[in-house]
Amino acid sequence: MRVSKILALLLCVWSVTCYGRPSPRQKKLSPLTATQLTEVVQKLKNTNYLNCAFIFDLKTTNNKKTESQEGKFYASQNVDGANLRFNFGNRSFLSLGKTKDQIFCSDKSTKMTLDAPLQSAHVLNFSDILMPFLGNKNYEYRTTRRVEGRDTHIIRFKESTGERVDIAYDPKFEVILQVEHFDKNEKLIRTFKLLNFKKTQNIWLMKSIEIKDVIHSITSRLTIKRVAVKQIIPAILFDENSLDKSLTDNLVYVDF
After folding, report:
1. pTM for the full model?
2. Closest to 208 in 3D by CA, of 63, 87, 56, 78
């Protein structure tokens, strides 16, 4: 059975859709050969997004201070790639496959980048979902490691800035369970973890993820509350000119 993904982030991006439930029992992995490594990376690059929407809570802890906010996420796949949208109250953010690194905001005076937090008190950004490092040609196989109760392959992507990104890839379910970002001195600076899954409408979906800014000791946890799957996501939601308009999606959401 296979795990496909939305993100980046949800998602090769967020790994959010699971067609088989992860099991703690698994045979010890053999290291990937050079050919297998290339095939895995190419598969991750080509992973399609699920057309879906969900309502979530984003809870962030910064030292002893905790802040929570409700948000809504939309994803749609087309020939240009993945279109992703976040709504937080009256603020909306949009990433379109055809425009790649450009982020649109309902507040047109706001200039966004992939690495910019979507909300000031939280650390979630579009890079967490889109995982742009997967496009790097400079990568290598590291080792096998137990992550979240699963045996995984650790694959390292090397950035031109000297930074490194390690992913923990579960070969049975073809999902990225963890992403670790290191600076050029090999110091861990950021982590992304897929925490658990839940089933709805015969589909296994990501239930929650954790993103941690290690340097500043800030942790954000995104937990999905309601989902809309197997439905057509309205195209107007992915129109950059509609971001500052009040729209009703008319989707049917179920508790999750």
Report:
1. 0.86
2. 56
